[in-house]
Specification:
With about 190 residues, this protein is of the alpha/beta class. Helices cover about 40% and strands about 20% of the residues. The chain starts with a strand and ends with a helix.
Length: about 190
Amino acid sequence: MNIVLLSGSVAGSKTRTAMEYVKAAFEKNHPEHSVTLLDLADYDIQFSDGRNFMDYGGDTGMLTENIMDADALVIGTPIFQASIPGTLKNVFDLLPQDGFRDKTVSMLASAGSSKHFLIPETQLKPILGYMKAQVLQSYVFIEERHFSGKEIIDDDVIFRIDRLAEDTLILAETYQKIKEEKEASYGF
């Protein structure tokens, strides 16, 4: 299975730190899967201008190709001004309307306070649903107080990240089996 982890901001380090923990959870417990971490801070991503995602070159083309080739995604986002960053929204705009069809997508969010814990529920889930993702209903929300430098210092958060990785795989594998059974039932 091809799993893509997307750290959806060009600013700050907490989301990237958390996504490193997600990557470690997949690699430790499921080394048989391909896991790629893409951090928007590492790339020069163009603004969406309505072109087909395959018409972009450079970092933008590489990013969209990796996302479209994924079987499962974990999207990590910080919460800025009670919203997802514009850089992450731009990624969604680069992709086709049904760009997450047949993909399992889970979420992780980091924020300065607990007041923003519903942002993934009210902003990310509707976008992912519109783009036809199979969305893992639970997500990980991490507050600033759970970090010290570039480490997560709360064992419960680490446990929830491990569970997110496991649940993402379970949903992706289950959905894949259902799809295969449905296709086999056509008999051609």
